[in-house]
Structures are given as C-alpha cells and as structure tokens.
Amino acid sequence: MNPLLDFSGLPRFAEFNPEFVTPALDQLLTENRALVDGLRMQNSPPDWESFIAPLDDGNERLRRAWGQVSHMNAVMNSPQLRDVYNANLPLITQYFTELAQDETLYRKYKALRASDAFTRLGGAQKKVIGNQLRDFRLGGAELAAAEKTRFKQILERLAGLSSKFNDNVLDATNAFELIVAQRQRLAGIPGDVLEFAGDAARQAGKQGWKFTLHMPSYLPVMQYAQDRDLREQMYRAYVTRAAEFGESAWDNSAIIVEILRLRREQSRFLGLANFAELSLQPKMADTPQQVLDFLEELAKRARPYAQRDLAELREFASRQLGLDDLQAWDVAFASEKLRVARYAFSDQEVKQYFPEQQVLAGMFRVVETLYGLQIKPDEAPRWHDDVRFFSICNRGGGLVGQFYLDLYARPSKRGGAWMDDAITRCRKSSGLQTPVAYLNCNFSAPLGAKSAVFTHDEVITLFHEFGHGLHHLLTQVEIIGVSGINGVEWDAVELPSQFMENFCWEWDVLKDMTRHVETGAALPRELFDKMVAAKNFHSGLQTVRQLEFAIFDMRLHSDFDPGGQMTPLQLVDEVRRSVAVLVPPPYNRFANSFSHIFGGGYAAGYYSYKWAEVLSADAYSMFEENGVLNASVGNRFREEILAAGGSRPALESFVAFRGREPNIDALLRHNGMAQAA
Questions:
Q1: pTM of this prediction?
Q2: Domain boundaries, position 288
Q3: Is 232 a catalytic residue?
C-alpha cells in the first residue's frame, strides 16, 4: 500500500518517497470528488451523520496525506520533492476552491442550518456549520459563474506564489556562505560557535571557519564578533535575501506586488474594500481601523521607552566601544556589551546552563504539574535521525496525544520555529482518534558527543511552540472542524503559546530545569536574578520593531494600492517614520523574506502576536495571583482554553477562564511599560 494512503496509525515517514505523492493524491481527489457528487444528489434533508460527517471524513483523509507532503517539503526539502509539491499544490487548491464554491453543498448547509435538526445538534456541531457557511461566502459560493472561474484562478495563483516566495527565501539563505581564514577576525565569537563553524568548513572541504545565514550561525556573529566589517558583511547578506541584489531567480520583489494585487482582487469579488477586511472575517478583531488603533496606541505607549533605550545604547557604544555612528549591524553587538556591563552576565554564560535534556525535562515537568499529565518518549517512524517522538498520557495512563520534536537547523529545513497538526482529535465509527502534532525549531545541533545547549531565548521559543502543541493536543472536542487549533480565531491562536513563555521567567521552574553543561551545577539564584532584572532590557526597541512589522502588514493590506505610485518599500519607510526609532540602511529588504505574510497565514494578521499577547499576559496574571504552578488554576486553563479548541468564540473561552474580559495592563507590566516614560 502507498504509505500516504494508510490512515490506520501514525504517518509512515521512514517509507516516504516523492514518487508516492502524485498517485496518492490522485486517488484521494478522485474518491473525494465522487463522494461530493453523491452528497450533491442526496434527496433526503441534510443531516449531520449522512451529509457533514462523510464530507469531513473524506476531507480529513486528503488533508492528512497532503499535510505529510507539506511537512516534508518544509523539513526535508529536496529538488525532487519541491517539484512534486509544486506540481500538486494547484490540484489541492483547485479541489478546495471548487468545494467552497459549490452552490449545491452551500444550499444543503443553509437548509440544515434552518431545519429542526439543527436545534438538536451540540454546540461544537453548530459552530462547525456556522464556520462553514461563512467559508462558503468567503470562498466565492455566491459569485456568478464567470466570477467563480476568475476567483479560482486567483486562489491557485496565490498558492503558487506563496510557495515560490518560501522557496526563494530558503534558496537565498542556503546560497550564502562566508569562509573566514584569519583567526583574528573571529575575536569575541564564542568557542562553541567557532567549533561548529570550523566543522562546517571541514565538511565543505575548506580551510578556516564557515558561517551561514541560518540563525545558529548568523546570530552569534552579530552579537559577539568584534570585527565590525564581518558584522556588516553578514548583516547585509541577511537583510538582502531574496531581493534584487542577488540571484534574479530568487528575487521576491515582483512576487510581493503580484500577491498584493491578487489579494485585493480576491477581496473585491467578495464585496470587500481590501484584503484586510477579508482576513479579519474569521478573527476576533472587527475592522482594520480597530487593529491599527490598537497598534498605534501600543506604539504611542512604547515609543518613549524605545527612544530611551536607543539613547542609552548610543551613549554606551560611543563611550565604551568607540562606535560614534551606531549602525544596524552594531545594535546586537552593542546591546550584548551593554547588557553585560549593566547586569554582569551574558547570553553565552546563561546558555551553558540549558542543556537540551534538562530543558526538555523541565518543560515537561511544568506541563505535567499544571495539567495532571505524563510525557514520555515513544517510538514512531521519523523523517530524520534527529527527530524524537513523545506521548502525552493522563495520570491513569490513557493516551491524550503525541508529538514529534525536530529541534535542529539543517539546510533542507525552512527557517524559524512552528507547530503544525499531523492528526486531529475526532470521534469516528472506529473510535476516538487521538491528536498528533509536529514541533519544529532551528537550534544548533550537538557536536559529537556533546549535549546541545540552548540560549534562554531559544528556551522561550521552545516553550512557545509547545504551547501551540498543547492547544492542539489537549483539546476535548471530538468534532474535527473545531477540534484543537481548528476553528480558533487567528488572533487568539497565539494565546496558549505566548502564555507558556511566561514560565521561562519563574525561579520555581528554572531551578529544576538547568544544569551547567560541564560542571553539572544548577543555575545560581544570583544569575537568575540578573536575568529577571534584564528581562525588559530594550523591551521598548523590541516592541516598536514588532509594531513596525504589524502596522506595515495591516496598511499593506488595507489602504495600500499595489497598482498605485507608492511601492511597498516606500510604505515601509512611511511606517518607520511614525513608529521606529532606529532606521535600518536603505538597502534593507526585510519584506522580501517576510514569510509570515507572503508565504504563511499571517497576511493582515501579524498583529495577532501583540493582540494575543494581551490575552496571554492577562491569563497568566491569574497564575501570578494564585501560584505559577497551581494545579487548580492549571486545570481551569486546560478546561476553559485548551480543551475548548475552536468550539466557541475565543473571547468566551477567555472570560470563562479569567472571569472578565481582557485588559492591556498585564501586557504593559510584563514589558516594563506600566508607567509613563
């Protein structure tokens, strides 16, 4: 049997071959189209069991198979797999577009919504039907025939452009390497980073040290390299990826404009003024202006802090480092030096206390304590030897869910960190299907027999992605359309992930999840206190940077005309003039690698990080009030937030947990901006 067609258990990754993809998808698409034809011809009034359940089941099989292909394309990219993925992407897009535009199915959903049978359905089932009716409208079901054809073309083209955008970023990232032959140029760079760089050079058959644009290589250079020219060289290469300065085949400039034009056209077909209005339809926020008001209010509160941060950094850089003209490639370096001077510790010092196994054990302990669970290693077919697999069980031993953990960077893997669903919890005729998640990061791999060690920022990233994973895995909903992360408003989906980050700043957590990689000593309380004191170091600068991205994204998809005189670059400049305090050099092309909005699902949604941060900070304040490892509060969070999934509006879930609607005070306090600057 084709392993992509086996849905009896876990994916058969050890047998995965690009040659299996097209035959499997062809079969599933044929089967699903036959199923849809049969459902169209049903004469009996539509009900859940005979109409919705079979359609959901067929679509789930297709999504599971395609999900494996998409996952492998992201973590084990190869020319053969990329070709197969890009060849099948239009076919998958076409099927789901046809489904969304199917007038007969749409009428049947509306008939069910208006029937007596609807009143007898559970809340989760009603939510699925409501979501589906909305998705029919947004998918073009109410368009005329000619409009549907063009609408379908737009969606297929957008899917292809997003894939190409990501391919270009990956290829441009992988194409750059810098071989440094002179040891003196590497002064300041930590020894473990140099060890990796030396090993990378040897594997490439070269003398010296090899540096790349992958984060484990790039970031330490920017933070620690005393050679200013080296920092500038790396910075320029990083911020000009997939732009006009490099290989023309990888230039995303034209792709950005075409994506924006097509998104605007897509929105106009649906009677909406812009793509931002379309993007907000399934979100908590109501209008683009509401989002912009929210972001600009935050910017107004944060900017004075950012200005103060920058003034301090410039003064320190001039006085202590001889940098009278602080540049973008100096900021990380000068900031690390200032942090060390002010708080008497460095990221590199802290990193030695976070070996991989200790971090994982500590993170699992938090979850086990809060939610009454057990997490243990398990076996499953894997796509790479570095991947590990775990099961989550209740205290009684009953299986709750499982997850893959793929922590390390490699050239075949796209950058960043993310969680994705492999299998979704749902009730089937054969019984309860337990959920499975992918957790992916891009940390430095261990070298030889040594343990991998993580920076505190990487520990925070790991907790963040595990929070997403728990949202998917701890759901108690058995209806697939609103189970786990499905059906959760996009601007609320970051709540569980950002919530988990808070535990990385708690002594009761860190004291048991740290062990010096060489001495075995636990993290000293004195060092922890310094970390906490430095927690909001340059939080003003960091906040306005994120707000710059979010405002740019929202404006790009609301009041920006992709066919007008202004370019995206000019819009970036305009946003920076109103928000930023540190302006990068003119050659900076960050938009060309802004995969969140051009290659992912965050278009007109990047604000979600800040929006959900309000929710997560306020939710965590309940733990601060009652004990951060309070199992009773943890159980309440699990039941009202995690277990509910998308079965009810996110605001209802928040209020059910917190007892009131969210407010911004906790966020400002957590970021050290509770008082006027």
A1: 0.93
A2: 250-345+538-606
A3: no
